[in-house]
TrEMBL record:
InterPro entries: DUF72, UPF0759_sf. This is DUF72 domain-containing protein. The lineage of its organism: Bacteria, Bacteria division TA06. Pfam families: DUF72.
Length: 311
């Protein structure tokens, strides 16, 4: 797909959002490799690009998956700057800060003195209400799904049902009025007990393409998987491929270099189910999926239109 073809294909994004509530977006947005497709303005330097490119991004895409809120609590100032660069109909899908979803802090140096320690704030609704929600208030109607990403949990944490019990209590104490979604990375948790917890609280399952999870299409085969009135998906990695390997293979993310049509087919199927069920869908694509997220979205929309589903 040439750059011109990608640009042309992406013209379907906003009409789909306005007419069908299908919100395509990417995971993060500050990628210089997208210049010439998503970004065509003349930015004086990289600092200016990072600060202002969201405005141009929002002319192409109706939504974006925000990753940086996973690593630190959002501030009202940062959310206000983001909101000011986007139209009111735009939607931000935010990852909730890992302080709520990490059972035990990894040993990475960035965790400092917390490395390797149990997280006392794990699934603490008070922390979510007091420290996360105030920062996102400036987004107002632009707020899309709030996604709780749980990394791969040790067998001892989830096998006896303790995790699902704690998740059940946690979701039951969250304030109403938000679109919540849960992303798990233990394939053995996919099943009726997990989906029942989500359904009880009208929370969505995040269809996530990750290294140790079944493909999105396999996840979608479970008859219990649609647990509320929205669909959320994150096309991240191919099964078996690590994040580090994907970064090494795909940077600087200028084009698709490892096509995977099956992933696009899975996204098209989710689109169809959402439209048939009159549900909003938030479909986020990562550069690490095929090498260039905008091109993956354009190819997905081409498939959608080729099959006549967009008519």
């Amino acid at each position: 797909m040439s750059r011109e073809e990608v640009r042309e294909g992406l013209k379907q994004c906003w009409p789909l959002a306005r007419e069908q509530q299908i919100y395509f977006g990417t995971s993060s947005w500050r990628y210089a490799g997208w210049k010439g497709v998503v970004y065509n303005r003349d930015y004086p330097n990289e600092k200016a690009f990072a600060a202002k490119c969201l405005e141009e991004y929002a002319e192409v895409f109706p939504s974006v998956g925000v990753d940086f809120t996973f690593y630190s609590f959002p501030t009202a100032a940062s959310m206000r700057r983001m909101a000011d660069q986007t139209p009111e109909f735009f939607k931000f899908g935010l990852k909730v800060t890992e302080e709520l979803t990490v059972w035990k802090y990894p040993t990475h140096q960035r965790y400092g003195t917390r490395r390797g320690t149990l997280n006392e704030a794990f699934l603490d609704p008070a922390v979510f209400v007091d420290r996360f929600l105030p920062g996102i208030e400036p987004l107002g109607p632009r707020l899309g799904p709030l996604m709780f990403e749980f990394g791969s949990l040790p067998v001892g944490v989830w096998r006896d049902g303790d995790f699902l019990e704690r998740l059940d209590r946690f979701l039951g104490e969250l304030p109403a009025g938000y679109a919540y979604a849960v992303e798990i990375r233990n394939r053995d948790l996919l099943g009726r007990p997990y989906f029942d917890v989500l359904r009880r609280h009208s929370v969505a399952h995040v269809f996530n393409g990750w290294t140790r999870m079944p493909p999105i299409g396999i996840q979608a085969q479970d008859e219990n998987v649609l647990t509320t009135d929205i669909v959320v998906a994150r096309a991240l990695l191919r099964p078996g491929r690590t994040y580090a390997d994907a970064v090494k293979q795909f940077e600087p993310y200028e084009a698709i270099t490892d096509p995977w049509p099956r992933r696009r087919r899975d996204l098209v199927n989710l689109m169809g189910r959402a439209i048939a069920g009159e549900m909003a869908a938030y479909l986020y694509v990562n550069n690490r999926a095929e090498g260039n997220a905008p091109a993956t979205i354009a190819e997905t929309l081409r498939l959608w239109l080729r099959e006549g589903a967009g008519e």
